[in-house]
Records
---
Amino acid sequence: MGEKLKIAVQKSGRLKEDSLKILKECGISIDNGKDQLKASAFNFPLEVLYLRNSDIPQYVEDGVADIAIVGENVVIEKQKELEILQKLGFSKCRLAMALPKDVEYNGLEYFNGKRIATSYPNSLQLFLDENNLNCDIHVISGSVEIAPNIGLADGICDLVSSGSTLFKNGLREVEQILKSEACLVANKNISGIKQAILDRLMFRLKSVLAAKNNKYILLNAPNEKVNDIIEVLPGMKSPTIMPLAKEGWSSLHSVINENDFWGVIDQLKLNGAEGILIIPIEKMVL
Ligand code: PRT
């Protein structure tokens, strides 16, 4: 049996489903039996280890797993020697400071001498040091949002995504410490056959992510407007132009980035584009 690259993914929790989905989009099928801690891909030299998100940085630093899909916030908190290879665009959240909603907050100085509850003491300490602040950090492993209500702390430092947990607990976000999303991390000493497998995986991953960030666009325009429209359409190289059956009209095909999307559409309409169609891209090989 040939050598395999070992990837750690979360055993159960917020990251698991999207982690397996993105591997599937890379064409990797995994025998994902229930309660399994280890599985192999059928069609790619990859072994999957199901681990706790919070344990993953240690396993990758030790080389038990070569690579992993893990929350960036955990990588920062655990302060391990890992390489972040690629942000993956899911499980987005932020680590933030929050206070009871009635507290008057006038800026960072407020935190000096206060008691802050968190499950992220290292990230919080870094933030306090950067801002020359001193706090009493109370480390608790879960239900951090309840700490101010039960008199355990003056404020909290915790992950926020929608903000509804803070709201339900009468808290309000006042400072953002860091932004996080799921990312692919690697041990710093991968080499040889494993590096070659990782290169193949990265190539697929970049194609999948590029496809998610781009859309295929088709539109019709009168021939005299085609040059103006080309100016607006960025495209991968330059747009494809084909004559329509209707005399004096052309069809243009191109690719546009999700971030520029609405701005480009407005410009296209102003320049005479009609019948605009936007189509998702399955894979984009760069
Ligand atoms: O047990 P294990 O170590 O595997 O996982 P975990 O305890 O870290 O579990 P899990 O599955 O809850 O979180 C995994 C990762 O998901 C985190 O490390 C983050 O990278 C990411 N993530 C994204 C989040 C959130 N969003 C999130 N909202 N992790 C936790 N939360 C919690 C937050 O702590 C708070 O209690 O959700 C609550 C706030 O959510 P909103 O939507 O009400 O703001």
---
Amino acid sequence: MGSLDLKRIVADAQRAFDNAADTVTLENEKARFLGKTGALTELLKSLGKQLDPQVRKSKGVCINIAKLQVEAALNRRRKAIADALMNQRLTSEEVDVTLPGRCSSVGSLHPVMQTWERIEQIFNSIGFDIVDGPEIETDWYNFTALNSPENHPARSMQDTFYLNKKDENGRALLLRTHTSPMQIRYAKMTKPPIKSIFPGRTYRVDSNATHSPMFNQVEGLWIDKNISFADLKGVYTDFLRKFFERKDILVRFRPSYFPFTEPSAEIDMRFECGRNAGRWLEISGSGQVHPHVLRNMNLDHQRYIGFAFGSGLERLTMLRYGVDDLRTFFESDLRFLRQFV
Ligand code: PHE
């Protein structure tokens, strides 16, 4: 074996490595030169004991130098293949950090719910509590306790959806037709003075351009010893001016009828300027709590006097934003709803 042989082996290895296109081929080529039966290993093994120690030593040195050169060539190629792989990944998995971020869209409250929150906030700021109540009521709370006995013609003012089952006392169950049953429920739970509002969903059978089978109301109840219609009018006028953010609002009480108030009145309002100016708009039912109703609240009608009102949230919303078709509130058309964001 001469130095020419070694040079040839190194050159062969270099070429073989350079031609290896991937790691698997490269590692197989490595075995051909550096493995247990590889060319260089075989050479080292052939340095038998019978050789002159001087010769043996110098040949050994030469073979080891060749081995180092082959290993260096192998490592160069390993690195080249790894770099090429990395570059390929970098271009194929490219991330454009200048792209705008993906944002999730933010929802907003339905206009009627915005009215609901506004009403709560305004009445709360003038000393009213906010109380929630059940949408499934007994016939007693919805009608009888509110002075509409069974078979009384006044019941036909509000027809509703009845449930097939009765409550544990055998009372008929129905979807409440108004928030007024909360007057009784709440008054029975607390003691006067009472200054509360009860916003909530209500249901009736009628359904047309101006009536929906489900709608929202806010009930107001004020019970104390020395209050009058003037107090109710003051509070309600103040509420309307805050709600519509306008000072040019006039309010009048027009005689009306409800079984649970006596006397009863419709509250009408009028804008002095702008849209709807000069027209009286009916905005709420109201009245002085009927003595029979006070009795059903377990209150002494000689000591206490009460005032109540019930207003429609859809109606207030329509007037505030100038919406003229009630049905748009229930159609879930985003083009309509987005206007209130
Ligand atoms: N509950 C009545 C209705 O729904 C409104 C009302 C409430 C009237 C309170 C008087 C007092 O029509």
